[in-house]
Amino acid sequence: MISLPFANKLSLSLLVCTTLLTTCQVSQASTTSNSQTPAAKESKIIGGAIDCDNDGRQNDSRIDDDGNGIPDRCVIDTSANAQQKIKTESTKEIFDTLMQALTEMTEGCDEATKVRAGVSYRICTINNQPVAASEALLEVGDGVGFWFKNNKVVAIRYFHSGETLFFDDETLIAKFSDDAELQSNFTNEERREAENLAKEGYQTIFQVFAESAK
């Protein structure tokens, strides 16, 4: 994926972000069920959930593979393991891919920096179009960074917390915590705050450079 152009990579990765948590568990369970099922027969769940693996949880299913109404096997619930794998491996890989894409997008950009009242303002452009901008306190480094594609924000990073937000056409799609934990569902307030920042949060940075050019 690293060799893909940024736009394609970003779209693909964000698609994975939005579907990963809702599809991986289902697909893994389906694969477990269908891999042992004859192609000519339709497997069905028989009865309610039971405890097949003696783990004290009624979360396993009895499966009838040949349509005779008699359970042929039991499928152990794997959602907990699947979720753990997503959190510890898959989301970290997605996050690393996205951050690598942002880095590649800004390679070779023309960088300019201004300092005012203890705040460092930075903007990076390619062909006079912004690809990145940031503002940060000089003493503590606290601040925020923006990445742009076609003059719209595609990512925001809070330097103090390490949280990184990703957008598609200024719509919030995913947020990663500092340890790459993925969040793809948001309250109205969370979404409104993030999307307002994506539309207006960088204006101060641009204004600093516009004023200095006068």
UniProtKB/TrEMBL annotation:
<protein>
    <recommendedName>
        <fullName>Lipoprotein</fullName>
    </recommendedName>
</protein>
<feature type="compositionally biased region" description="Basic and acidic residues">
    <location>
        <begin position="54"/>
        <end position="65"/>
    </location>
</feature>
<feature type="region of interest" description="Disordered">
    <location>
        <begin position="50"/>
        <end position="70"/>
    </location>
</feature>
<feature type="signal peptide">
    <location>
        <begin position="1"/>
        <end position="29"/>
    </location>
</feature>
<keyword id="KW-0732">Signal</keyword>
